[in-house]
Every structure is written in C-alpha cells, then in structure tokens.
Design a protein that fits this description.
mainly alpha
Amino acid sequence: MAEMRMNWHRRHKEALSAGDRAADTLRNGMGSWPFVGIFVGSMGLWAAVNTFLLASRAWDPYPYILLNLFLSMLAGLQGAILLIAAKRQDAIASAMAQHDYETDVRAAAQIEMLMNINAEQLKLLQELRGLRGNPPGASGEFGLP
C-alpha cells in the first residue's frame, strides 16, 4: 500500500493525549441519537422497576432521589467533557486558520512571481514588435518577400 503523506492534520491527531482522544470519543457518543434513546430508555426502565415491579421494596421510590443524584452527576461530567471537546475544536480551528493563512501567503508569492514573468514577457513582445517594424526589403507580416 502506498505510504500516506504526513500533513498538519495527521500530525495534530497523532499528538493528541489520551485525555483529548477520550473527550472526543465521549463527545461524539453523547451527541448522538443512540445515546439519547438509551438514556431515555434507561430512565423509563428505572422508573418502571422502582414504581411497579418493586413497589413494596424499591431501592429508589417515587421521587427517585437516587436517580436525580445520578442525573446531576452525569450533567456535571457532560459539561466538563463538552468544554474540553470545545476547547479542542477551537485548537483545530486555529490550526486550520494558520494553515490556510500560510497557504494564502505562498499562493500570493507565486501569483506575484507569475505576474513578474508575465510583465517580462510583455516587455519582450513589445521589443519584438519594435524590431519587426518593416526592415528594408521585407514585406508581409512575417518579413517574407
């Protein structure tokens, strides 16, 4: 298989710490419909088990105080994970902007070089037209008799 070129994005991904990769993975998981479905289903199951199946000996009866504690802890962790992931996205956006700027600077230098070449070619064409004039004994556009 052909060797893959190393670009700035690949170098950036390889330089990530385990915590950065974990934050990205958790952010991608928590921001998905399967997570929402599993979350809602598990809360419904918790309520059903504690309300109907274990009515006389439920470990977390109706106001579901233990469930509220777990939800509060989950919200606190989610907030921290999302902030870490947002910070990483800012770093990626900054790296992309820097890369775009460097590309634009190189492109501007190349365009300037091409414009200088074009100007030189125009000067040479003007000189050739001046030399072509009508030399003695020549006729026609190409100086043929």
